[in-house]
Specification:
With 331 residues, the chain is α+β, with helices and mostly antiparallel strands. Helix content is 31%, strand content 25%.
């Protein structure tokens, strides 16, 4: 669930060396990771609960190329092609010589340094590299900017992605599992192992489900830390949430699906001491947070006509709305 290191990153006045001509390219490799959404099991997935998670049709692409010189050039792009981060890094210790955002540059330094602890041969020849990443979604949406980054760097450095994730971001790892998944999964992480079960969701009501951006970015890490004491006391709820997850995956009707997620909302609301739906209390159906409560995306489901439901959501000020079939990847 850990996500929000990205909010506020942008391109201020670019330092002079970052505007120089691109170094000559020698060879390249590509990497791609899918975005993610967590349908059930938020928070308690960290305590071993089974969670239903889905990969998205939108992700992040990386092109990693060798280049002349002895620097690491990094550029990150938004979906429209605009630059939201750019940096020039020392290959000796991966510190940023110049950058447009120091906090993100420091994060990259930490990740690359962690790779060398697993693989001492990573970039040990100090040959220049150029990395260009492009998001297919806005970084504010919470779709997995961090997890797709870790996936790509782990692949590049030939190290275990889950170990790298634990050393840098922490979290259950469900989002990392979604980066390479080809369809929905049930995810469970314990101290002993990570279990990933691919599944097909044969829901006949998918057209009734909308995935809506709340307009607010929530720090998953901060939210978990805020509720840590409550979550430690709620381990007894792990079994119940796991059972709900299995039943949601097998739901055969919209009514059953809504009842199960209502039960999920009520149990988590009791644990967290927060309302599940602070956005539209009079919504004619169910609204469920996806991931950290209070921000990012929520699921809206109603027996009403999908076009009518979408119109009502827009009238409430929610304009970034996806249909289930438009956003969720189902192999």
């Amino acid at each position: 669930m850990y996500e929000n290191i990205w909010s506020g990153f942008g391109t201020n006045l670019l330092p002079s060396r970052l505007n120089r001509e691109t170094p000559e390219i020698l060879s390249n490799q590509n990497s791609y990771g899918h975005g993610k959404l967590l349908i059930t099991g938020e928070y308690l997935v960290l305590e071993g609960a089974e969670a239903l998670a889905v990969p998205l049709r939108l992700g992040q692409q990386f092109v990693i190329r060798s280049a002349r010189g002895a620097d690491l050039h990094w550029k990150s792009l938004r979906p429209d092609g605009s630059v939201w981060f750019q940096g020039l890094f020392n290959m000796l210790d991966f510190t940023a010589q110049e950058c447009t955002d120091q906090s993100f540059a420091d994060r990259l330094t930490d990740i690359l340094t962690a790779v060398t602890r697993q693989n001492p041969d990573f970039l040990s020849d100090w040959k220049g590299q150029k990395v260009e990443s492009k998001l297919e979604f806005e970084p504010e949406w919470g779709f997995g900017t961090s997890s797709t980054l870790i996936h790509a760097i782990a692949e590049w450095g030939e190290v275990d992605a889950y170990s790298l994730y634990e050393q840098t971001f922490g979290g259950s790892g469900y989002d990392l599992a979604c980066a390479t998944a080809e369809g929905p999964i049930i995810f469970k992480s314990t101290e002993e192992e990570i279990h990933i079960e691919p599944l097909g969701l044969e829901w006949p009501f998918k057209e009734q489900i909308h995935l809506v951006y709340s307009g607010q970015k929530t720090s998953s890490k901060g939210s978990v830390e805020q509720h840590s004491a409550k979550l430690k006391q709620a381990k007894g709820a792990v079994e119940a949430i796991s059972a709900i997850t299995q039943r949601v995956a097998d739901a055969e009707s919209l009514e059953e699906f809504t009842e199960l997620l209502t039960d999920h909302n009520e149990r988590m609301s009791k644990i967290l001491g927060e309302p599940a739906n602070p956005w539209i209390p009079d919504f004619p159906g169910l609204i469920k947070p996806l991931g950290a409560w209070g921000g990012d995306f929520f699921l809206a489901v109603s027996p009403e006509d999908p076009k009518t439901m979408k119109k009502k959501l827009a009238e409430k000020g929610f304009t970034t709305i996806f249909g289930w079939n438009d956003l969720v990847l189902e192999g």
